[in-house]
Design goal:
The structure holds 2 protein chains of 2 kinds.
Chain A: E1 8-11, E2 30-35, H1 44-52, E3 79-86, E4 92-99, H2 108-112, E5 119-122, E6 127-129, H3 139-143, E7 150-151, E8 158-159, H4 165-168, H5 175-179, E9 185-189, H6 190-206, E10 213-215, E11 225-229, H7 249-279, H8 287-302
Parallel strand pairs in A: 2-11
Antiparallel strand pairs in A: 1-5, 2-9, 3-4, 5-6, 7-8, 10-11
Chain B: H1 6-24, E1 45-50, E2 59-64, E3 76-81, H2 94-97, H3 99-103, E4 113-114, E5 123-124, H4 127-145, E6 147-149, E7 155-158, E8 164-165, H5 172-185, E9 190-191
Parallel strand pairs in B: 8-9
Antiparallel strand pairs in B: 1-2, 2-3, 4-5, 6-7
The chains are: A alpha+beta, B alpha+beta.
């Protein structure tokens, strides 16, 4: 199956073709489904992530909320974000969202990255950072519509959730999925996750959450981490989940149209040079030229007004 | 250094610029090797156990270094939920998910310690001394406070001045034995879910 496949379908800053022959299984990709309606905010996923990936963030300070650490970091690849929102009826809703890399089908980080092979996308949909190729420029942060990657202060390289690519590669589910005690996190093929979400949404609608829905934003061609939201019409109330995420125009322009144009300009310059060389040839001087130049020099030197 | 003509200088700088521009545009000569991180549990030894925290008693799998060979010193490198355990089917709570750091905690108690009455210091003692002292004190207390019959003549055989806290990380069988042992002493107050 292609699910465990490490075949790379895209690589940052690389135009060489990727291996394509093992694509017989079609578009089968993996996905993580985060059901915010079932999440109790216990952070077992956060701990499991740290344990599996051998990360230990600094022990911080209490910021007055359950959110801990206060933000994603190079050592905290996933984070429960807690939002207290007053709904239209005047009731308080406690919305908890597991934040982390969304593994976009059209990854802005990969498009923005100038380091060859520092960001790759596997055939199973996972977007992975290869830190040994990372130059620490931080373009991936500018390219990410969800503000996920973080540069480490230790080695100045970018880090983020790998969707446990090392576990998925041997056929296991990611560590966070396995730990989740309420079943709010589910993992499988993207198709299955959409079906699972559809069941959940039907159930939520029957309980009065009319706007329940799946978050699989089209602006980045869908994601391999999806949310079931009780209020899919207003994703921003879940601690600023973007409503219509898209790769920034600057990145699109610079890495999109500019690249072929620059290539064309370079090719044109090279061609012009080549044709100029074979048609006109290099500037060469004969003895007559040298004599004229000597005359000119002598004149200039002898003319009284130019004399220093 | 040899003299560089204007023409040579332009050639060299032009070639350098073109080369670096091509590399930036993706014509890099070296192809990046794509590899995920090595799966760290491939040949570790798996040992099943019960999470020591609460009475839910989730099943865990402990992954340790080495294959159990005589010369390989095992050490737990990872702990996960046991997918075959009927209680938790692989899941864990944040405390259970962090068990590895519990195992290797520098403040973990590794031997019996004794604090004398009135003292503010713990001192290490041997298991023999610890168990001997516990048995001696239990016997003294039981001899002094065991109630065989109530004043009305009802046989009760109870010992109310001592209680026992047992760990929650016990299997059914250990729980059964704890119950039998304590009840045969006449102890009524014991908790097999110590939440410690």
């Amino acid at each position: 199956m292609a699910l465990q496949s490490l075949d790379i379908i895209r690589r940052s800053a690389t135009t060489l073709p990727e291996p394509e022959i093992r694509s017989g299984t079609g578009d089968v990709t993996v996905a993580k489904l985060i059901d915010t309606t079932k999440c109790i905010g216990c952070k077992a996923c956060q701990v499991a992530c740290m344990e599996w990936n051998d990360l230990r963030d600094e022990i911080g300070t209490n910021v007055g909320a359950y959110q801990n650490p206060p933000d994603l970091s190079a050592s905290s690849w996933t984070l429960m974000r807690f939002a207290e929102v007053e709904n239209t009826k005047g009731d308080l809703e406690w919305l908890i969202r597991k934040d982390g890399c969304m593994h976009c089908q059209d990854p802005g980080c990969l498009k923005a990255c100038p380091a060859p092979g520092a960001i790759v996308q596997y055939a199973n949909g996972i977007v992975d950072f290869h830190e040994e190729n990372c130059i620490g420029c931080g373009y991936c942060i500018a390219g990410c519509p969800f503000d996920i990657p973080r540069i480490s202060k230790k080695d100045h390289k970018a880090y983020k959730c790998t969707l446990c690519s090392d576990r998925v590669a041997v056929g296991l589910e990611p560590a966070c999925i396995k730990a989740c005690p309420t079943g709010a996190l589910v993992f499988g093929t993207k198709e299955d996750m959409k079906l699972h979400a559809a069941d959940r949404i039907e159930d939520l609608k029957s309980r009065g959450f009319e706007n329940a829905g799946l978050y699989d934003p089209a602006g980045v061609s869908g994601t391999h981490v999806m949310y079931v939201l009780h209020h899919a019409d207003t994703p921003h109330i879940y601690n600023g989940l973007p409503g219509k995420p898209h790769i920034s125009n600057t990145v699109q322009l610079w890495k999109g149209i500019t690249k072929p144009l620059a290539l064309a300009a370079m090719a044109l310059a090279a061609l012009t040079g080549f044709f100029h060389y074979i048609r006109v040839g290099p500037n060469e001087t004969d003895e007559g030229d040298e004599a004229r130049a000597a005359d000119e020099m002598a004149k200039t030197l002898n003319s009284p007004e130019k004399r220093p | 250094m040899t003299d560089l003509t204007r023409r040579q200088f332009l050639k060299i700088t032009g070639a350098t610029l073109a080369g670096s521009s091509l590399a930036l545009l993706g014509f890099s000569a070296s192809v990046a090797i794509a590899e995920v991180r090595e799966f760290k549990l491939s040949r570790t030894t798996e040992t099943r156990n019960t999470c020591p925290y609460c009475a839910v008693a989730c099943g865990i799998v402990m992954y340790s270094l080495g294959d159990g060979s005589k010369n390989a010193k095992a050490s737990i490198i990872h702990i996960e939920g046991d997918p075959d355990h009927p209680v938790n089917r692989g899941t864990l709570c944040p405390k259970g998910a962090g068990l590895l750091d519990f195992v290797h905690s520098p403040s973990r108690l590794l031997r019996p310690e004794y604090r004398a009455p009135g003292s503010d210091k713990w001192q290490p003692i041997s298991w023999d001394d610890a168990l001997g002292r516990i048995a001696k004190l239990m016997k003294e207390d039981r001899d002094a406070n065991f109630v065989a019959k109530t004043p009305t003549g009802l046989t009760v055989n109870r010992w109310l001045t001592t209680a026992m806290l047992a760990a929650s990380a016990s299997s059914n069988e250990v729980g059964y034995l704890t119950h039998k042992v304590m009840r045969s002493f006449g102890v009524l107050a014991f908790d097999n879910q110590a939440r410690v």
